[in-house]
Amino acid sequence: MNSEKAKTILILLFKWIFICVLVGIFSGSASAFFLVSLEKVTQIREHNQWLIWFLPIGGLAIGLLYHYLGNGVVKGNNLLLEEYESPKKPIPLKMAPLVLIGTLITHLFGGSAGREGTAVQMGGAISDQFTRIFKLDNSDRKSLIIMGISAGFASVFGTPLAGALFSLEVLYFSKINLKSVFLSFFTAYIAYFTVAFWNVKHTHYSIPIVPEISITNLLLIIPLGIAFGLAAMLFSKSTHFWAKLFSKIISFSPLRPFIGGTIFAITIYLIGTTKYIGLGVPMIVDSFSTPNASYDFLLKILFTGFTLGAGFKGGEVTPLFFVGATLGSALSVFVPLPIALLAGMGFVAVFSGATHTPIACTVMGMELFGIESGVFIGLACLFAYFSSGNVGIYHSQIVKGAKYHLYQKINHKKLDLF
Questions:
Q1: Angle, nearest 10°, between helix axes 160-169 and 358-369?
Q2: For labelling, which of 131, 158, 161, 219 has a CA lying 20 to 30 Å from the CA of 410?
Q3: E strand or H helix that includes residue 158
Q4: What angle do CA 345, 350, 351 make, to 5 degrees?
Q5: DSSP structure class, residue 252
Q6: What is the C-alpha end-to-end distance of the chain, expressed in Å?
Q7: Spatial separation of the C-alpha atoms in residues 225 and 251, rounded to whole Å
Q8: CA proximity to 113, closest of 291, 313, 263, 261
C-alpha cells in the first residue's frame, strides 16, 4: 500500500469517527432532553388529570403544526425507511422539533403513545444533516440514516447493543454494507454514554427467578410466543385501521386529532381510569410482580391504535412493551412459569413480532433483564416473529426472508382451495 492510499484511508477513518461522535452526541443529547421533558409533562398530567379534557385542543395544535409546517415529515419513521430504500433528498431538520413538540403535547394531555418514534425521528433528522455538511453520496447517506436510528433507539431505552442491531435488522432486506454495521454500533454507544453523561436514568426491570431449561419449559414457550405474535399482529392492524378510518372520514387532517382527542377524553372519563394513557410505565413495572387483568393488553392496543391513528405523535414501542408485559403477566395465572419471566418474555416478544426484529429484541431482553433469561426470551421472540404475519407497525418496512416466504406459501394454498 502506497503512502497516498494509506493517507486517504486514514482521512476517511477519522472523518467517519468524527461523524459518529457528532451524531451520537447530538442525538443522545436530544434524547436526554426529550426524556427529561417527557417525565416533567407526565408528572404534570398525573397531578392534574383534568388536563385530559384539553386533549382535543392539543390534537388540533399538533394537526395544524404538521399541516402547515410539517407536510414533508408527517410520515415519521416510515420516511426514514423510505429514504433509506430510495434516497431522494435529505430529511428536513424540522422533523426533530416537530415530533418532539407533538409527542410532549400528546403526553401532557393524556394520549396513549410511546417515545421510540420520537427519538428515532430526531436521530434520523439530525444525522441526515451531515449529508450536506460533508457532501456525502447516497451510499454514505444510507449509513447516516442507520446511525441516526441506532443513536435514537439506543439512547432512549438505554440499550446500545439492541439499538445498533435494531437499526440494522429493521432495514436488513434493503441491503446493508459492512461499513454501516460498525458505524451503527459505534454511534449507538456514543449516544448511550451521552445520555448517561447528562445523568438521565432509564427504567429498570428485573427477572429474579429463571427456571431451569427443560423440555417442558421450552415447550411452554411455543404457545406463549404464538400468543405474543398474535397480539403484535392485532396491534399493528389496529394502528393501520384507525389511521385509514380517520383519513377516509375526515379530509382536513388537523381535525382528525381534534375529533379523536374528543372521543378519547370522553372514553377515558367513562371507563373511570387513566392507567391506559401515556406510556403506561407504572403498569409495566407492576406486571412483573402482580398478575394483570386479561383485558389490560387489549385496551392498550385499542387506545394506542386510536391515538396514533388519529394523528397524535409518539412511538409504538413502549405501548408494545405494555401489551406484551401485561399479556404475559395475565397468562401467569395459567402458565407454570415465574410471572416476571412471562412479563419479560412478552415485553420483548410482542415488540419482535410488530417490528420483525427478533435478534434485536432478544439482545434487548438480555440487556434489560440479564443474560440468564436469554434462551426463554430468544425463543419467545422467534415464535412471536413467525406468528405475527407480514404486517408490522412500519408499513414502509420491507419484509422478506423465511417468514415472508412462509406466508406467501400459506396465501397461495388458500387461493388454491378456492
A1: 170
A2: 219
A3: none
A4: 105
A5: S
A6: 65
A7: 39
A8: 313
Q: Give which of 169, 26, 157, 30 is closest to 101, Cα–Cα.
A: 30
Residues contacting residue 393 through CB under 8 Å, at least 6 positions apart? 235, 236, 239, 316, 320, 354, 355
Give dist(CA 275, CA 136) in Å, integer. 47
Report residue 171 CA to chain centroid gap: 14
Amino acid making up residue 84: Y
Which residue, among 237, 221, 235, 168, has the nearest Cα to 344 in the 3D structure?
A: 221
DSSP state of 291: P
Q: Per the structure block, which three cell numbers stand in for 40?
A: 416533567
User: What is the full per-residue pLDDT of the chain (418 aa) written as tens digits?
Assistant: 577 888 888 999 999 999 999 999 999 999 999 999 999 999 999 999 999 999 999 999 999 999 999 989 999 999 999 999 998 888 999 999 999 999 999 999 999 999 999 999 999 999 999 999 999 999 999 999 999 999 999 999 999 999 999 999 999 877 788 899 999 999 999 999 999 999 999 999 999 999 999 999 999 999 999 999 999 999 999 999 999 999 999 999 999 999 999 999 999 999 999 999 999 999 999 999 999 999 999 999 999 999 999 999 999 999 999 999 999 999 999 999 999 999 999 999 999 999 999 999 999 999 999 999 999 999 999 999 999 998 899 988 887 766 665 665 555 555 454 4
Lookup result for grid cell 435478534: 359
3-state secondary structure of 346: helix
Question: Which domains does the chain possess?
Answer: 3-197 (1.10.3080.10), 215-405 (1.10.3080.10)
* 324 vs 172: CA distance, rounded Å: 24
Dist. CA 156–CA 192, nearest whole Å: 8
Amino acid at 35: L
Q: How far apart are CA 67 and CA 250, in angstroms?
A: 14
Which residue from 299, 51, 20 is spatially nearest to 134, judged by alpha carbons?
20
Question: Looking at this protein, which amino acid is placed at residue 104?
Answer: L
